[in-house]
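Input/output pair, single chain:
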Amino acid sequence: MTRKILILLLTVVTPIGWSYPIDGHDYTHIQRLKYTNALRLPPGARLPLSDVLPSGDGITSLPDADSKLSARIKSALGDHASNYSVAVLDISDHDQPLYAAHNENHIANIGSVGKFLVLFALFDKLARLYPDDIEARERVLRDSSITVNDWIVHDSHTVPIVDADSGEPARRKLHIGDRGNLWEFLDWMASASSNAAASMVVQQVILLEHFGRDYPAEPSVTRRFLEQSSPGELGELWLAAMQRPLEAAGFDTGRIRQGSPFTATAKRYVSGTSSVGNVRDLVRLLNLIEAERFVDPWSSRETKRLLYMTERRIRYASHPALNNAAVYFKSGSYYSCEPEPDFLCRKYRGNRINRLASIAIIESPADSPALRYMVAVMSNVLYVNSAVAHQTLAMRIHRLIEAQHQSQSLQESPEAASPYPSPISHEDTLSGTP
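Output:
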C-alpha cells in the first residue's frame, strides 16, 4: 500500500501581544483598553496616545544599501543566512539615513503581516471618502456596530473581548453573533492577529468600496448585498481596494499584496489571488508611517497606534534588549510538517515549511528616542524555533544600530559590550519560548 504523506498546516495559537496606547478607550471605544494594567507593562509600552505619533522623519526614498552594515547583518545570521531576508532602515539621524539589506528582493508569503496591508487599504478608502473630514472617519471606526457572521469560520486565535453579559474581560475565539465597532475589529486583527477579525475587516473594506458614504448600510441591506453577490463580484471590489493604495504609492503589486481573506469561508465568498511580500517593500511601507504618507498624517498616526505593543511582547519584539523601547510590531507565522522518523511537529518548527515574517519600528528609549529604525525580516529555517531565532536577531540588530551611532548600550545585557555580536545559534537562547 502506498504510504500517504500527511501535511499539517498549522496556525499559531499561543497568547499574543496586544497593541494600542493604554489610554485609548475614550477615543476608540476599544473595550479591552479599560482593563489594561499599566504596572505590568515594560517601560517602553507605557506611552500615552499623545506620544504615539509619526516622527515626521521618514525619507523620500531608500538610499543605497550600506555595504558594511549589510555585511554585519548577514554575518549575524550565521550559517542559515541564505534562508533569511532582512531590511533595516535607520532614520535616527534624519540627515544621514542608513539602509542595510540582505536578500531584500526575495518574495514569499508573509502570513499575518498581510494584515498590515489591509490597514493600508481601509485607511485609504476612508481618506478617499472623507478627504477633509477626520471626524467622519473617526465616527465610522467608533460608532459602527459590526456583527460577526460566518465569514470567521474557521479560526483558532483568541481575542481580548469583554463579555456582554458579565461585563468582564476574557480571551476567547470570536463567535458568530459577537459585536464590536470597526476599531475593535482592527485591534483584534492587528494586535491579537485574529484571522476571524481580519476576514470581518476584509468584509468591511468590500462594503466601504460598494456603499461608499452610505456605509454602514442597514443590516438587511448589507446582508442582501453579500448574499446576492458572486465571489467574482466581491473579489473585484476587494482587489480594487487592496491594489489602489499600493499602486498610488509606487509599489508593484506583483511583489507585495494581500490577495485573499484570512479564513476558509471568507475565501469561498471572495475570489482572490496569492499573497506575497518582500522585506524591501515592507520597510518602505513602515517608512511611509514615519513620513506621514501611509495614506496621510491621520492614517499614519492611527496605524502606528494599532501597531504599538502595550501587552505581552512576542517573537522579534520580545527580547529584553527592547524593554525600554517603544515597539510597533506585526508578525506572521506559516509552517507545515510532514511525517519524519523521530521528528515531532511543534509550533514555529516546521520540517516542510517554517516561515516567519516580522516588521517593527523601534524607538529607543521610548520617552526620548536616540535611536529610531525599522526592520523587516523573513525566514524559512526548517526544524529550528523561528520565534526564538527572530527574538535573538532583534537583539543583534539593536546592538549593531547602537554601535553604528557609537552610543553606549541603552539596555543592560551580557552581550552589550560587544558591538558586533556573534551569529545566531538557532538554538533556544532564552528561558521560555515567546
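Residues 1-17, 407-419, 429-434 have pLDDT under 50 and may be disordered. The two ends are 42 Å apart (CA to CA).
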